[in-house]
Predict the 3D structure of the following.
Amino acid sequence: MDIDEQPDTQNGQKKKGKVKKQKKRETCLEKNDGKEQDSVTEPARNPTENSFPPTFSLSEIKNKQRRHCMFMKLKQEKRKQKLELRKKRRKERQALGDKAPPKEVPKTIENQRIYDETTVDPEDEEVAFDEGTDEFSAYFNRLTNPKVLITTSDRPRGRTVRFCEQLATIIPDAHVYYRRGLALKRIIPQCIARGFTYLMVINEDRKVPNGMVLCHLPDGPTAHFKVSSVRLRKEMKRRGKEPTEHHPEVILNNFTTRLGHTVGRLFAALFPHDPQFVGRQVATFHNQRDFIFFRFHRYIFKNEKRVGIQELGPRFTLKLRSLQKGTFDSKFGEYEWVHNRHEMDASRRKFHL
Amino acid sequence: MAAKSQICSVWVGSETGILKGVSLTKKQAFNFCEMSCLSRDQEVCAMAWADPHESEVLVGCVNGTVKTFSTEKGIFTENRQCGDVTQGRFTGLAVTDSSLITCVESGLLKVWKEGSTETVEINAGAAVCRMRQNPAHRHRVATGGKENPLKVWDLERPDTPIFTAKNVRNDWLDLRVPVWVRDMAFIPDSDKIVTCTGHHQIRVYDPSTPQRRPVLEVQFGEYPLTALSLPASQGSVVVGNTHGQLAVLDLRKGLVRGCLKGLAGGVRGLQCHPSLPLVASCGLDRFLRIHSLEDRSLQHKVYLKSRLNCVLLSSRGLEQSDGDVNGEVEEVKVEEADEGDEVWDTMETVTEKRRKRNAGEEEEDGKVTEKHAKKKKAAKNL
């Protein structure tokens, strides 16, 4: 029993009066017969003998084994206390019943987010005008229908090829082409001539898709994303049957800032205007902490209250690296936003989308 | 409107066609435009002061009109058609005594004399990216663009340029170096001209010597440089590129003195204050930022909702406006200081105030406290 108590007594000793210290020491001495205890009590005794500075921490113990041992015990102790506290609180809540105070909201870096002054106010005339006349306005005014060309970096392997094929089943009117070593700047005019509205390039590294260039045609913008955690259909558990050809619905979550709006519109314009509700399929772009999570589901209304969903896959995560004005031109293009790790990620509570 | 426009010290032209005035003392931004008649063809491409007193701003739009905005009245007073859409955007506006100089992308440089319909036309070559006026000799302008070397024109003798730059020598593979002048500026108190290019070079030309090639060439970064401005203190230049990198370069040795941080998107407009060590930048990230050139810290950051194309600073102090007491301004500055120690900031205000109040009698006392404060600061820094 003494073992568990040790770290606590240590801390207590320093603050409390001498009388107590002596008492504790006595108890220690009384019990001091086991081998294990010897190792443990020694550091506890040390403060009285060598008079440690008031800020004694476990990291000052020089013997690695002993330090490790002490640290594990400290952790155990902390955990125990925490569990007890939680138990106590739960009991209190149960005792109070309905009168219990509302639960505290946990602190997360999202609800502690630093206010972003570019957050779009839906009633703002200027932003509305800016969005109403931007490059996507043709799509949102229902003048164009999306047509997407999907290609890869040169010589795609394994997963990237399958990833492209599966993306093509999600996005209606998508065409997968083999890159054939062509330069993007030369593909773009041909795409425009053939009426494509998007060029999507999946980049791969060591057979794993790791980047995506999404270029809106005919006159931009171009977004460059990092792609991670790609899970193809085959690798998913409890997935549904293959998706149908119906136009899916699109959900865009949490794109609040001006940059977020542009990115949201970029994704929205990938899909045709009128979703076919018969298909009961939804594509979701969920933004959380600047990561965009893509999921593809089929839903069913079981009754008036309950809905069942079934994931169809694939799933992947995107992170915006840069947004460039105009079609793809990484050398001479003008960038609207470039992610700069050293400057922008200085605060963990600042988000850009 | 008039009250609003008089307190503004920074003018910004946006891609949505709105002229924006920003007052840094009041920390407010105003739109000087009717929100009902917005259109993209009023996009502001160039801005200039119409008179030396800075009471009127000339605004060049994409559709070829030059609007005159009165900062005293706060309204657009004049609308003049100086070109059409087919000739391209305005690349520069300037005013000499009683005449207006316009230049468009197709290379047509025109001088509009006041009161007469006749214009002097100069063809400056295709794909002009920028036209700038020499502030010392107001009848001299410089042009340059893509595959269009730097040329200096004397508007009194418009037939031939008085200086044409020569391309640099071929590179080590004996290939021609492409020309792409994006912006230029006349260095005051000398004949020299500094340019920045789309191939990330900064070049200094000296027309007073027979050499037509640059006398200094510096490279900065790896992205096209879009804007350039000369600060009040000589011997340096501020450049910005398409990735939002802003740097102060030394013109004597061609070294980077330091970078100005905080930008997220490409720079479109850049101007240094004519007397204070301040630089204003605006661009595609929709922010107007004002940096101090002394410690390169960010002084102000204003979100203006549209992509911004050009910026114009008034030559009076940015922080001061007529009605304000000096002390008040001081306080705002303190609030504004970005990454300072809060405790220290409050201390500074206190000493400032005391010194002001006791200005007459206890001037020395104030100085003493200040000295103390300085000592403390030094100690803290240690």
User: Anything to note?
Assistant: Chain B touches chain A at residues 16, 18, 31, 35, 38-40, 198, 223-224, 226, 242-244, 261-262, 264-266, 284-286, 303, 305-307 (CB under 8 Å). Chain B has four helices and 28 strands. The CA atoms of residues 284 and 307 of chain B lie 5 Å apart. The mean pLDDT of chain B is 83.
